[in-house]
Design brief:
alpha/beta, Rossmann fold, 8-stranded mixed β-sheet, 8 strands, binds D-malate
Amino acid sequence: MIDLGNNIKITVNNLTVSYNDAGSDESLVIIFIHGFPFNKSMWKKQVEALKNNYRVIAYDVRGHGSSEVGDEDFSIELFVKDLVNFMDALNIDRAILCGLSMGGYIALNAIANFPERFDALILSDTSCIADTPEAKEKRFMAIENIQKDGVEKFADESIKNLFAPESLSKKRIEIAAVRDMIVNTSKQTLYKTLRAFYERKETCSRLSEIKVPVLIMVGKEDNITPTATAMLMHENIKDSIIHIIDHAGHLSNMENSVEFNNLLTKFLPLIKDT
Ligand code: MLT
C-alpha cells in the first residue's frame, strides 16, 4: 500500500518534507522537482496528465512550499541527499526524475552521484553550467534587493524574467500562481538557496557518464537557461532528445503545458520498453 494524497508529510534528514503522491504503486515512479522559488504545485498539470499511467510524486524541496527549512546551509548536494533519503523513506529503489531549472540542477547532480537510482531524466529549462562571476554578482544583488525592498518587489521583478513576453499578457492564472509561490517562500529560504546557487558546481563534465534515456526541454524564449544551454547538454548526453517549446520562457511546463505534456507522454513509453 502507498499513501496516495496531497500534502503528505514525511521525515527526511530530520525535517518534515511535504509531497503529493498520485497513481498506482504498480507503475513506474516519476519524481517531479520544482524550480526556485516555487513549490510542488507548479506540476499540477503534469500530475493530472500522467497519474492514470504512472505513479507521480511531486515534493517540496527543503524550505520551499510546506517542507521545513532546517538549520543547515543549503547546497545542491544537500538537496540530493534529501532526494535520495526521501526515496529510501518511501521504499522507492529507482525513479524517473523530472526537474525544472533548480530541479534540473538537483537531477543532474543526483544522477552523477547515484546513477543506480534513476531510470531516466527529463531536464527542463535547466543547465549544467556553474554560475559565472556575473551570475554570482546577481545572486548577491538579489539578496540585497530582497533585504532592501522585500519579497513582493522581488516577485514582481522575477516574473518579468521568468515568463515569455507573450505569456506576460496571456497567462494571468499562471502568473498569479507563480507570484503566490514566490511571496510565500520565506526570506531565509530565498537567501539560503541563492547562496547554494552561487556555490553550485558544474555538472557538464559528468554528462557523458549518463547512460539512461534523457529528454531535454526548453522554452524558446527562456532568458535564464537559454536554448544554447539546453543544446550544450544535448550534445554531451548520448542519445538525448531535445525539444524547444514555442510560446514559453523559463516556465515551459506552465506556459505551454499542452506541448510539454505531449512531449512527456511520448517520451515515457520509451523508458517502459528499455
Ligand atoms: C529556477 O527557476 O530554479 C531558477 O531560475 C534557477 C536559477 O536562478 O539559477
